[in-house]
Design brief:
By secondary structure, the protein is an all-alpha fold. It has one domain. Helix content is about 75%, strand content about 0%. The radius of gyration is 16 Å and the shape is elongated. The N and C termini lie far apart (about 60 Å).
Length: about 90
Amino acid sequence: MAENNVAPTRKFGIISLVCGIASICLSYGPFIGVIVAIVGIVMSGKAASVGDESKMPKVGKILSIIGLVLSVILSIIWLIIIIAAAANS
């Protein structure tokens, strides 16, 4: 059996960091990056509440916020393009 070597206080930080990276990578798809970024922000808050003082939750939160901003901007651009294409046809 595989052992779980991650400390319980650090798993939320790791999840936050992974979600932050994924939110930036997925920000080009409409609305998908928003969901992942929100999960990353929530997980960084949970990491802080359980006492994780490492840099992972902080970096995860920063990356999630960047991913959220990118996702919102690019989703708005997608909507504008779709509306313009529908109006021209």
